[in-house]
Amino acid sequence: MALPLSLRTTVTPPELELIATQQLIEIIPLISMEKTAFISGAYGPLRPPNKAKVPSWMAVNLKLKKKCHIVAPEWLTTEHLQDCLTRETTEDAFCSLPFRFAEISKLLLDVASDDLENPDKLRSLLKDLREARQAKSREGLKKIDHSELSLPNLSSMEINEIRPFFIQSMSILSHLVRNSAPDIIP
Fold first, then answer.
1. For 44-186, where are the E strands, in sequence order?
2. DSSP element (H, E) containing 27
3. Rounded-to-integer distance, Cα 78 and Cα 125, Å
4. pLDDT value of residue 1
5. C-beta of residue 55 within 8 angstroms of C-beta of residue 40
6. What is the model's pTM?
7. Helical packing angle, 119-142 and 156-180, nearest 10°
8. What 8-state DSSP symbol labels residue 115?
9. Residue ranges in the chain whose pLDDT is less than 70
10. How many whole angstroms separate alpha carbon 118 and alpha carbon 107?
């Protein structure tokens, strides 16, 4: 597949999702399993009905085999996302969300929507939240300065989206500032 030039210099969304699969999430196992060693670490033991923290790649694998239920992270609730959406639309600062919230929420909604409360409402809130944060990012980029840009609480996906534009803009802006500086004659 041919990618647009702007995406060739950055990580693709599926690659970000793959990176996010290393995040630990809670599951309720439906099977017993001893502690198992993987390249990324040792996980377990799994004992139903006790919760366990495992990487999301392992949780997805177990979920697809119907061997666990995935516990929604505390930030992936309609109440929390509604609160974040309200803050995004009323405050200047970005709402604090996990760095990989976009990737993890997509993964959980795709694989474990039956384990989540009101998945359709969650999808809608996440879409609205994404649009509000994108608008805020664009507004922040309008105030770009040649020396720095401060947009705290951006997620990995949001940083990845603005990276090509930001790098090119900062390069042009730095060049303009350098060329417009008065020549100092000793």
1. 52-55, 68-70
2. strand 24-29
3. 7
4. 45
5. yes
6. 0.81
7. 10
8. G
9. 1-9, 141-150, 167, 169-170, 180-186
10. 16
